[in-house]
């Protein structure tokens, strides 16, 4: 007696027909007037869910698995409603094979603008070799934007062979199924890396930001920057989107810039086009945004005096550190708060960046 299954349901064929050594899997559909051309196939997979080898992918260009366990037969035309038939010899199935998957794909669906929404009355059924029906799954309303679909699968459960109704669709066609099951013969060629785009034109000046809290925010140390040679410093391939190095609120960092901090080794960063323009055209500290309530005088640089370190430019609204005595050498200090008396030594500022991406693991779950 045939067991009618719904999506995700399973049945033990070995219990349905004790002593069963072979079965016939029939797949059918209706596509009259649509121009759709479905193709049935079979994948012999190991315990990891990957195809055992490319020769164990049975389809219209490979009608038989190497050991003869799975054979794609000619369409029956016997009134059964099957449009494709696949014969399975359980005795010849390699011990490493844990399941046999049965996909159906639409030939050149993307070029023809077709999908399973145009396929009606799709089904998969399992019968014994003498024609005794064992299980059937009708894919009612399963069609949508999918161009390929796994109808069902046979799988081992201990010493038994069982059948599961799957009904999983793929919008990427047979190539998407091939990628999931590790078939290289249908995997699309990797696309060539896109050429590095030239730096975008300068963006309009950013509007003034709101006043900062009483305690001044810390900024990166000043330095000089230049636009790197794209050939010498290519943009990283496959990196995730990054925000502007100097201010994440500016949006994505799209322009590569070689940044040389006051203390540290020059390195490439990415910033918004506006910040990149300021890096190239404005003397340090180019990263400081205008602040309401404080005069922005452009931070004039003091003329250099040979033999002595140069003091940092004065900023209105904050007390200034005492000037070092001649003959003694000090590093540049950073003011931390109002009333600071000045720093005696230079502080080495190190910045650490972490571009690691979290691993993304996709699990396919199948019930026994």
Describe the structure.
The chain is 7% helix and 26% strand. The protein contains four helices and 16 strands. It has helices at 13-16, 109-112, 173-180, 273-281; strands spanning 3-5, 10-12, 22-30, 38-40, 42-45, 57-58, 70-73, 84-89, 99-106, 120-128, 133-138, 148-157, 160-170, 223-226, 255-261, 267-271. Mean pLDDT is 74; it is low at 216-228, 230-240, 294-305, 307-317 and 324-367.
Features:
Lipoxygenase-1; Stress/Tellurium_Resist; disordered C terminus; mainly beta; 6-stranded mixed sheet; 368 residues
Brief summary of the model shown:
The protein is mainly β and 368 residues long.
Secondary structure elements and their pairing?
Elements: E1 3-5, E2 10-12, H1 13-16, E3 22-30, E4 38-40, E5 42-45, E6 57-58, E7 70-73, E8 84-89, E9 99-106, H2 109-112, E10 120-128, E11 133-138, E12 148-157, E13 160-170, H3 173-180, E14 223-226, E15 255-261, E16 267-271, H4 273-281
Parallel strand pairs: 1-11
Antiparallel strand pairs: 2-13, 3-8, 3-10, 4-9, 5-6, 5-9, 7-8, 9-12, 10-11, 12-13, 14-15, 15-16
CATH topology of the domain at 3-180: Lipoxygenase-1
Task: List the secondary-structure elements in sequence, H or E.
Answer: EEHEEEEEEEHEEEEHEEEH
The 3D shape can be described as elongated
Q: How helix-rich are the residues, as a percent range? A: under 10%
The CATH class of the domain at 3-180 turns out to be Mainly Beta
| CATH homology superfamily of the domain at 3-180 | sav2460 like domains
Low-pLDDT windows of residues: 216-228, 230-240, 294-305, 307-317, 324-367
Number of strands: 16
Mind telling me the C-alpha Rg? 34 Å
Output the number of helix runs. 4
Strand content: 25-35%
Structural category: mainly beta
The residue-averaged pLDDT reads 74
Q: What summary fits the major beta sheet? A: 7 strands, antiparallel
Separation, N- and C-terminal Cα atoms: 22 Å
In CATH terms, what is the architecture of the domain at 3-180? Sandwich
Domain TerD: 1-181
Region (Disordered): 283-333
InterPro entries: Stress/Tellurium_Resist (IPR051324), TerD (IPR003325)
Biased composition (Low complexity): 288-333
């Amino acid at each position: 007696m045939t067991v009618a299954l719904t999506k995700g349901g399973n049945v033990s064929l070995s219990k349905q027909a004790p002593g069963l050594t072979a079965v016939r899997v029939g797949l059918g559909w209706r596509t009259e007037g649509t121009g759709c051309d479905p193709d049935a196939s079979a994948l012999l997979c190991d315990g990891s869910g990957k195809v055992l080898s490319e020769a164990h992918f049975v389809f219209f260009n490979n009608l038989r698995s190497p050991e003869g366990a799975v054979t794609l037969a000619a369409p029956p035309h016997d009134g059964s409603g099957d449009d494709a038939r696949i014969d399975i010899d359980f005795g010849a199935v390699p011990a490493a094979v844990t399941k046999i998957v049965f996909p159906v794909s639409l030939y050149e669906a993307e070029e023809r603008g077709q999908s399973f929404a145009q396929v009606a009355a799709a089904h998969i059924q399992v019968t014994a070799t003498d024609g005794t029906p064992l299980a059937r799954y009708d894919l009612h309303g399963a069609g949508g934007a999918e161009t390929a679909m796994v109808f069902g699968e046979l799988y081992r459960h201990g010493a038994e062979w069982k059948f599961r109704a799957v009904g999983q669709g793929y919008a990427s066609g047979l190539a998407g199924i091939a990628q999931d099951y590790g078939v290289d013969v249908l995997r699309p060629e990797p696309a060539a890396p896109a050429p590095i785009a030239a730096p975008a034109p300068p963006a309009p000046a950013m509007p003034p930001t709101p006043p900062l809290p009483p305690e001044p925010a810390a900024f990166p140390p000043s330095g000089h920057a230049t636009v790197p040679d794209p050939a010498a410093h290519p943009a990283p391939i496959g990196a995730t989107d990054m925000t502007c190095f100097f201010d994440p609120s500016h949006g994505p960092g799209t322009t590569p810039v070689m940044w040389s901090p006051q203390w540290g080794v020059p390195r490439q960063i990415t910033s918004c086009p506006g910040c990149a323009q300021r890096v190239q055209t404005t003397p340090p500290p180019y990263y400081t945004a205008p602040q309401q309530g404080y005069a922005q005088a452009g931070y004039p640089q003091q003329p250099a005096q040979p033999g002595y370190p140069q003091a940092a430019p004065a900023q209105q609204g904050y007390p200034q550190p005492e000037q070092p005595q001649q003959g003694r050498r000090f590093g540049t200090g950073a003011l931390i708060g109002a009333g600071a008396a000045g720093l005696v030594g230079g502080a080495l500022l190190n910045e650490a960046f972490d571009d690691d991406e979290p691993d993304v693991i996709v699990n396919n779950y199948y019930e026994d």
